[in-house]
Amino acid sequence: MSDPSDKHGPASGEPSSQERAQFEARISELGERLGKVRSHRKADMDEDADAEMRGRGMAYGMRMAAELVAAVIVGGVIGWSLDWVLGSRPWLFLLFFLLGFAAGVLNVMRAYERMQREFAARGGKIGQSLPDDERG
Amino acid sequence: MPDPIHQFDLHRILPLNLGGWDVSFTNSAAFMLATVLLSTAFLVYAMRSRGLVPGRLQSVAEITHDFIADMVRESMGKEGMKFFPFVFAIFMFIFVGNMLGMIPGGFTVTSHIIVTAALAALVFVMVLVVGFAKNGLHFLKLFVPPGVPWYVLPLVSLIEVISFLSRPVSHSVRLFANMLAGHITLKVFGGFVVMLLGAGSFAVLAPLPLLMAIAITALEVLVAFLQAYVFTVLTCMYLNDALHPEGH
User: Fold this and answer.
1) Which has the closest alpha carbon to B213: B191, B189, B177?
2) Which of A9, A76, A91, B124 is 20 to 30 Å from A120 by CA-CA measure?
3) Of B163, B177, B223, which has the smallest distance from its Cβ to A71's Cβ?
């Protein structure tokens, strides 16, 4: 820009058409460079988020497995002890084992719903990679 | 081959016997004590200046506070903040305990299921006590999902009860299994390095498991944090059921 003293002059504040063309060229160049930097940074951030998601994915996978197995074990233990008390081995054990499995599936479905909500709140990164018909 | 399980051995530092019960002060107890002292000392020291503009340590303490406070508010709403001290203590204990276990030669208190089971049982009992104290018998609505016809209700309720009882199991096993498996893996790869070094010309291969051990160490630091986080999130969720038994 010109120095402040002649900025207030009647015609000197207006840039010539040549100056304006130069200015526009510089702006578009800057825009291109900014775009490049931005796309690089976005790729970097996506990569970081991806690595973080993989770490979380591992943790969530373990969580799912634990939810299922824990319910089956609890069901089995309840049935087994009821059998032991009532002397009806092995019927109640079998019944509660199956009920435990049902409870395990219920646990996994609940955990999955919660994860979907969490991911949706954070921008739905993992939810997008799932087919639509798998969403609860 | 160095024994990968050896790191989990308990030994008595201060043998104590109380009425026939062995209540010795063990290395596990020592590390639990260190965990509590360290986290308390850190928070007290970090907040000593109480500056309006936080210094470095103070901002770490404030970030930790906000992290847990946001988690509690998000899952339980404003009234859930009554549980903030409890949830914060659980998170700090597990996180600092896990991190102390990452120090070579350290002992990981959370790699013993009795410790994680005690924590999970604490949460479980807390949910029961708070649930019944706050909602009375309405707390049992937790086992009656809405919109279920009466003729399948007994079956569904039974399944819900089993699902509820399975919570402390999965809650405790997950943390314990992750820490145990991670530390065993680390030790096994470390053992490979030593074995290869002692195997004549195979020593040239020794850097390979070393690289793996380094990578797993980084992963273990992440797991140490993530498992503390997951345990805390689940604690919040279960406590939320105690506050609002109707809605899952």
Assistant:
1) B189
2) B124
3) B163
Q: How many independent structural domains does chain B possess?
A: 1
- CA separation for the pair B132, B139 (Å, rounded): 6
- Amino acid present at B232: T
Phi, psi of B18 (to 5 degrees): -120, 105
Indicate if the pLDDT at residue A127 is higher than 80: no
Beta carbons within 8 Å of B71's beta carbon, 6+ residues apart: B87, B232, B233, B236
Q: What percent of chain B has pLDDT over 90?
A: 62
- Asked if B109 and B31 touch (Cβ cutoff 8 Å), the reply is yes
Which site among A53, A56, A58, A63 would you substitute to test the B interface, given the most B Cβ atoms closer than 10 Å to its Cβ? A63
Domain that holds residue B146: 6-243
Which tokens hold the place of A65? 């497995």
Residue B100 within a domain:
yes
Q: A66 to chain B: which residues are within 8 Å by CB? A: 170, 173-174, 177
Phi (first) and psi of residue A50, to 5 degrees: -65, -45
CB within 8 Å of B91: residues ≥ 6 apart: B68, B228, B229, B231, B232
ipTM: 0.79
Sort residue B55 into left (φ over 0), alpha (ψ -120 to 50) or beta.
beta
- Which residues of chain A from 98 to 117 reach within 8 Å of chain B, CB to CB? 99-100, 102-104, 106-107, 110, 114
Is the pLDDT at A11 greater than 70? The verdict is no
Tell me how many residue pairs between chain A and chain B have CB atoms under 8 A apart.
67
User: What's the whole-model pTM score?
Assistant: 0.80
Whether residue A33 lies within 8 A of chain B, CB to CB, comes out as no
Task: Give the DSSP letter string of A40-100.
Answer: HHHHHHHHHHHHHHHHHHHHHHHHHHHHHHHHHHHHHHHHHHHHHHHT-TTHHHHHHHHHH
Domain ranges of chain A: 15-134
Place of tokens 């859930």: B80
